[in-house]
């Protein structure tokens, strides 16, 4: 298979690079023509933000010293079930729950998965609440908004399905997770759309086509080697190369030919605890986000921040970066960072008082 050939070549080249780097401590860069391991994006079991709690929960985490001073607060919410609130549930025994995921829409809106209140909450570009839609699944964890304004909602643990909700808020059908390419629903680590295709990511590796946005299942359930870029040109993967040194490899594969386009080494400047974002915008710019240690961090008093590198989608060259404080509350989140088609980096900040949707930009 073409994909298999690409993977084998990439693995061999990564092994060569690691060996060379070990022999030469000064080696700081992965040449764009050297293929990195076409392995999982390294975003943690369960979703883009699933390793967030490991670094921040239970600690007095503070933001990085280079926090984004130009942050724009789009909307604010209290905790509860009212019109201007999002649900939070802290049981004496059990994992604390809050908003699990969110997704930008093609019109600049944002859909927030408020699974505690069993609803999707739609927020307009200026932050005004536009309405809610009931969730058709019992344990929804991820949401995607398609180009036609439909919402895709994934439950990987109970119903083990993706529900398709039309732009009118009415259910179109469900696509089963388990089957060819996905032997167990809990192994899915993300939900994506590509044109009118509905895809799920399997253990941070290949993506499996479940069906169409119309709700029609795909009997073939073919696979693709990474997350589709929003400009339709590439499949993207990312991996931790040297977490202690803050080094990450981003790989791009041509969507049309499956040929390797580039693998670029990215440096976050300090130790990376987890990758928490791999996305793109409509122009093809790639965004790689990491939870990282910041200056003054110690095991006794950890200081954790988030940084996002913006990368040229044609050659893998970093063109900007933004940093801001990480969440420091215990509620698990499946996806707390996303990128809009216009390049806005959206972050759902959660505090003891409530939540706020922030908009950041690379500089």
**H and E string:** HHEEEEEEEEEEEEEEEEEEEEEEEEE
Low-confidence stretches: 1-42, 50-66
- The secondary structure category is mainly beta
Largest sheet: 5 strands, mixed
The helix content, as a percent range, equals under 10%
Number of helices: 2
Mean pLDDT: 84
DSSP strand content: 35-45%
What oligomeric state do the depicted chains represent? single chain
State the separation between the terminal residues, measured CA to CA.
Answer: 40 Å
Strand order of the largest sheet: 2-1-25-24-23
Total number of strands: 25
Work out the radius of gyration.
20 Å
Shape: globular
Question: What does this 3D model show about the protein?
Answer:
With 363 residues, the chain is mainly beta. The protein contains 2 helices and 25 strands. The longest helix is centred in the first third of the chain and has 22 residues, at 2-23. It starts with a helix and ends with a strand.
């Amino acid at each position: 298979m073409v994909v298999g050939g690409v993977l084998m070549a990439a693995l061999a080249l990564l092994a060569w690079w690691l060996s060379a780097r070990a022999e030469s401590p000064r080696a700081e860069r992965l040449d764009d023509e050297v293929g990195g391991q076409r392995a999982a994006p390294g975003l943690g079991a369960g979703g883009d933000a699933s390793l967030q709690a490991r670094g921040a929960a239970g600690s007095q985490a503070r933001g990085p010293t280079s926090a984004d001073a130009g942050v724009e607060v789009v909307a604010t919410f209290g905790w509860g079930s009212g019109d201007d609130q999002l649900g939070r549930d802290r049981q004496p025994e059990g994992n604390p729950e809050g908003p699990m995921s969110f997704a930008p829409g093609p019109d600049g809106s944002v859909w927030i998965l408020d699974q505690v209140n069993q609803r999707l909450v739609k927020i307009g570009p200026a932050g005004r609440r536009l309405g809610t839609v009931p969730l058709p699944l019992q344990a929804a964890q991820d949401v995607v908004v398609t180009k036609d304004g439909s919402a895709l909602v994934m439950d990987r643990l109970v119903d083990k399905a993706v529900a398709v909700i039309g732009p009118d808020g009415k259910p179109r059908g469900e696509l089963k997770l388990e089957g060819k390419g996905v032997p167990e629903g809990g192994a899915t680590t993300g939900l994506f759309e590509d044109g009118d295709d509905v895809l799920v990511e399997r253990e941070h590796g290949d993506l499996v086509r479940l069906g169409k946005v119309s709700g029609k299942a795909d009997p073939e359930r073919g696979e693709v080697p990474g997350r589709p870029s929003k400009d339709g040109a590439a499949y993207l993967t990312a991996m931790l190369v040297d977490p202690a040194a803050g080094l990450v490899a981003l790989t791009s594969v041509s969507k049309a030919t499956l040929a390797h386009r580039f693998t670029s080494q990215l440096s976050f400047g300090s130790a990376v605890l987890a990758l928490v974002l791999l996305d793109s915008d409509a122009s093809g710019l790639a965004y790689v986000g990491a939870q990282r240690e910041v200056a003054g961090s110690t095991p006794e008093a950890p200081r954790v921040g988030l940084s996002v590198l913006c990368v040229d989608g044609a050659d893998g060259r970093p063109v900007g970066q933004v940093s801001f404080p990480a969440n420091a509350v215990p509620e698990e989140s499946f996806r707390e960072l996303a990128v809009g088609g216009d390049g806005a980096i959206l972050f759902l900040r959660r505090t003891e008082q409530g939540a706020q949707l922030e908009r950041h930009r690379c500089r």
